[in-house]
Amino acid sequence: MASTSVSRIVPASPDKVWNLIGGFDALPDWLPYIPESTPLEGGRVRRLKNPEGEVILERLVDFNETERHYSYAIVQAPFPVNGYVSTIRVHAIPGRENAAEVQWSGRFNPDGATEDEVVALFTGIYRDGLDALHKTLAA
Prior knowledge:
single chain; alpha+beta; seven-stranded antiparallel beta sheet; 2 helices; 23% helix
């Protein structure tokens, strides 16, 4: 199983960051790669579309409001992986009330691609997503 993780310090309090990204259906609010999200199964599944119109189905597998993190599994996606599970976490930074660290990590099995290729793919998605989050919060 392969894995990757990206962290980014963002210019907002942990509560403000979590209020923006903590909703399982909130990706379009901060992630340009996902302009459309439709909640299914009472909000436990999200049907996403990327700018090319490709569909991604993800299932919420863990959610912790108090600790500000959630995990999800990919059910269907145009990515060369299986067994994908990812977690988004918001951490407080001691002594910095108006900053937070956001960590986006995932583990997965390559399927039709090399481990290096899928690690690079998701590292890029996470990095670009956290850069977009930073820009949204800095505006």
